[in-house]
Amino acid sequence: MLVEDNPGYVHLTREALKESKLNVSLNVVRDGVEAMSFLRQEGDYFNFPRPDLVLLALYLPEKDGDGVLAEIKTDDRLKSIPVVVLTVSKFGEDVSKTYELNANCYITKPINLNQFINVIKIIEEFWFTVVKLPPGQV
Amino acid sequence: MNFSEMDKPVEILVMEDNPGDVRLIKEVLQEAKVRNNPRVVGDGVEALSFLRREGEYAGAPRADLILLDPNLPNKGGREILAEIKADDELKNIPVVILTISNSEEDILKSYNLHPNCYIIKPTQWEQFENEERFIGRFWFGMVELPKAEEEW
Lengths: 138, 152
Prior knowledge:
The structure holds two protein chains of two kinds.
Chain A: E1 2-3, H1 7-18, E2 28-29, H2 32-39, E3 54-56, H3 65-74, E4 83-87, H4 92-100, E5 105-108, H5 113-130
Parallel strand pairs in A: 1-2, 1-3, 3-4, 4-5
Helix pairs in contact in A: 1-5, 2-3
Chain B: E1 10-15, H1 19-31, E2 36-41, H2 44-52, E3 65-68, H3 77-86, E4 95-99, H4 104-111, E5 117-120, H5 125-141
Parallel strand pairs in B: 1-2, 1-3, 3-4, 4-5
């Protein structure tokens, strides 16, 4: 699941994943409230699968990324889902706080578009081929 | 700032008691493009002393990354992980679990303690090497690690 309100980044992420040999299915939500509904499979999302990985921007409308992260990591049914924070901020405070909320890792979005695509590809390769993800819970 | 942009070496705590795996991990870390300083401890109690900079480790540098095998003697790895993540001074240090266990129960139990990721050691040496390199590439070259700036 990608939590991102900037259409440009959404588009680039889709492009990066299109070239993948792995069969990764990307669901996009644009704000923090929608993110939680998706994760909890509520309302329109009741039939959607639980994500194996969350890519989370910090600066979002409705509910910011920190809020989403804190909710995920304190919910027994959701806390094992890896959350990769992918954001524009490089501030040390943001980084520290995010790790304290149990983000799995924090990555700054490169400004260069090709570098951004490369970052998505590396994230995908690392999290889907190197890391053993937690078993899905039905 | 990630470590590939800095002059300071990455301080890595390797919590591993298998000598073969230790050797391999150190070899791969030596070849990593980003300067790093691995410290190996073979048991859990020693690991905590290092992290808390107690006793003989009073002058030790702060760990930037922890590689953890949960099957450590003298205080199991999962117990250590739980202590690290409950300690305000240590909880934001990323922990990469590196283990042989593929059991769903072990994996889920571990993730519920908030390691940063869980990686299964391949049995083939070359694969292990490749995985270690990727771990280095990802955690030193791409990820922002916390509190790096404080150590300047």
